[in-house]
Amino acid sequence: MDFIIDIVGRFHPLVVHLPIGFLFLGALMIFYSGNEDKYLPIMRFSFFWGAISTLLALITGFVQYNQEGYAWEDIQNHLIFGIIVLIIAVTIYLNLKRIFFVGFKSRKILVYFLILSLIITGHLGGNLTHGKDHLTAPLPDNFKAILGVDYPIKKIELDRVTYRSQSLYQAIVQPVFNAKCISCHSPKKKKGELVLIDYPSIMNGGEGGSLFSKTDPEQSLLLKRIHLPLEDEKHMPPKAKVQLTKSENVLLSRWIAHGAPKEASIEALKIEEELFASFFEKNPTGIYPDISIAPAENEVLKALKKKGFFISPIYKTSPLLKISCINYHDFNDLSAQSLLPIKEHIVSLDLGKTKVTDSVFRVIQKLPNLTVLKLDNTKINGSQIELLSQLKNLKEINLVNTDFEIHNLTKMYNFPTIKKVNLFNLKKQFNSNLKIPDSLKSVFLLQYYELEKLDTDSVVY
After folding, report:
1. Looking at the domain assignment, is residue 287 inside a domain?
2. Each residue's pLDDT tens digit, 409-423
3. Residues 239, 124 share a domain
């Protein structure tokens, strides 16, 4: 029978909407009706069923609390205000039934308290189901700072390709203030009467005056405070807080040296790229080349996708691409020519289970940034694989279940950056006296390994 009790509790999110509808309708009718008796039946109906549904909501809510393991401290205020709603609803209903009398003005005051209690109860319930920040989460960080709401600090990230067109203030300066300064310098906590939530506030300065010196930028108050010894009580940020990084420090100095502009772009200020390196999104795998190129043209990518290629960036904002023929099994040596318009963008190429032969290497050798090449389950035998020796970024090749001839293995010994070559074949074993140099034995995987069988493998459970 426990499952029935569990089901009853799970009706709480449904039942809880009924009193909201009935009681709000009744409240509106009280304000609309004035003190006319002709509206009493509909008002009594609304508050009767509003009270009944509130009681049902309390019962189902309490059952859900018991069944689903909520902590008492999490639900107690929600429950208390729910009880207050019930008491007020019953009181208004009894008054409408003339069981006891209060004046119209007193009834309206009760309705105001009812509406307020309903809103609070609903908000506390929303906190339980959606989290305490469900109302403030969509707000911009500056608004959260004004309201004194704590919020997770966003990591500063720049797109390596487009960052130069961004305003230095918007891209770096304000995000640094948001991350390192606003906890002490927001409208809620104006330490030194200084607020740093937006450009006008920054320009206003604090009780010590302007943060910037127009005649001698290096003597600006902001820089003086940042450059004070960490132990100094006037050092910014305080010793107990997260400090500015070297790049953040230098970029703030450069920004001030240029007059602390709001709109000036990074390109216009001619700031060197290495100062922004720590803000670029990192390559997730760490194996692809660290290069900066313009994104491939959308029309070219659309045409390739239409042919059947699956194309994705190595990470969200990267111009470097992974190309797969997972849905393009008719891909052949001739088809490879279509990849040349994006040859510099391809870092991972998956031609597994396609119709390619060694002739495809004549095209693949033209992909300068290729890092990972997958040729599993193809007719590749290695007769022309030496063509790939000129690829300076090639690190991994998958030749699993191919027609690869073992004597062609030596052609890969001089590949400059190769780290792993998978050659095991489920259908045949390589029987050869070929001796792989000790320095390369970890690179070439020639066998299919199976785990040692244990006695327990045959046990039926």
Report:
1. no
2. 999 999 999 999 998
3. no
